[in-house]
Amino acid sequence: MTARKRKIEERDKKEDVKKKILSPEAQKKMNEFYDQQNELLQKFEQDQETIQKPIKKAELPGAKIFSVEKCIFKTGSSISEEITFRQKYFPVVVENCAAKPTFVDSSMDIACSFVMNICLSAISKTDALKYPRGRDRLELIGVILCSVIMAFANVSMIMQSINSIVNDTVDPKMTNATFAIIAVQTVLKAIIMWMCYKRGSTSSLVIAMDLRNDLITRSLALVCGYLGDYVWKFADPIGAICVCTWIAYSWCRHAVDNIPQLVGISAERDQMARILNITLKHDERIKYIDHSMIYYTGLNAQVELHIVLDEKLPLKITHDISHDLEKNIQKLDFVERCFVHVDYNCDGD
User: Fold this and answer.
1) Residue 54: inside a domain, yes or no?
2) Which helix (H) or strand (E) segment is 318 a member of?
3) Where is the signal peptide (predicted)?
């Protein structure tokens, strides 16, 4: 080998090494990709364990779940009713513009808890003959309705605060009674919020979000009310406007985020991959997956699969393969219903 060829090979090796060295940003993205792949593989293993477990009849009804959530809602409603009663008979509390959102939120808590209790009661008392697939979607409708109620309530508070600034009718008063009532609200609602977040269901998260907003409004109400009383009176209505604007935005965003689930948004890629993985590993006689559609029309996903089997297989075997596949996929926590269609060739239909 000549010296020239050696130099060329050494240069090519250096260029290959440079290509293999990635920038920090590219390296970060690559690490994130592999982390996601490892998480997905773990989910594949968990899914295989899940489908091996038999379905227990005690796990099918949601009576226990609904009873726990009803208890949380009733507790939150009781606290809100007590707070609303106290604020009604301590009028000085609502003389502060920044404290008014706390009164509005307490009143709206009762309305939201009332709406969610109606939805959960209707779901738990569903007539299977009249609603063969149940009425679980009522929970999502209740969530969106509560979001709209809370958003409009805070928009009205914004208009009142602006009106008080324009007409120069601001006269904030931060008394010991105001401070005590708001402090008690904050502590009690923080406890209920922790319970709701720990529960983790859709309805509980709605209540938790409402309580989180309450904690923010109460904290800012104390700060802005104090500043308005002792420093600058317009700090009170300006604080109320900022608080209500943030709350109205967060509830509108929450409603918008939940609407796609009612109108058929596609499932996430990881969820699609998990279902396809179960399908391919279900039975070696499944030749192809001709068509798959995984989408939401409520809290959980609907799955439509077209699989291809040998046309010479007996009806009994094809039925058992497809039926067992449906039952296995329906064991996944994000799946409401699975439909498997069997075909003998890939026709794309």
Assistant:
1) no
2) helix 315-329
3) none
Type and span of the H or E element at 179: helix 176-199
Q: Are residues 303 and 238 in the same domain?
A: no
- CA dist 52 and 55 (Å) reads 9
The total number of residues shown for the chain amounts to 349
The amino acid at 211:
L
Report which of 100, 104, 97 is spatially closest to residue 229, judged by C-alpha positions.
Answer: 97
Give 266's DSSP letter: B
Query: Cβ distance 307 to 147 under 8 Å?
Result: no
Same domain, 109 and 240: yes
Token reading at 158: 């914004």
CATH number, domain of 145, equals: 1.20.1510.10
Residue 122 CB partners (closer than 8 Å, separation 6+): 135, 138
Confirm if 262 and 137 have CB atoms less than 8 A apart. Answer: yes
Dihedral angle of Cα 60, 195, 332, 338, to the nearest 10 degrees = 70
- Decide which of 231, 260, 289 is a domain's last residue: 260
Cβ count near 22 (within 10 Å): 11
Rg, Å, the chain Cα set:
29
In a domain, 21, yes or no: no
State the pLDDT confidence band at 154, using cuts at 50, 70 and 90: confident
- Tens of pLDDT, residue by residue over 12-40, are 665 555 555 667 787 788 888 888 889 98
The gap from C-alpha 303 to its chain's centroid, in whole angstroms, comes to: 20
**Percent share of the chain, pLDDT over 70:** 74
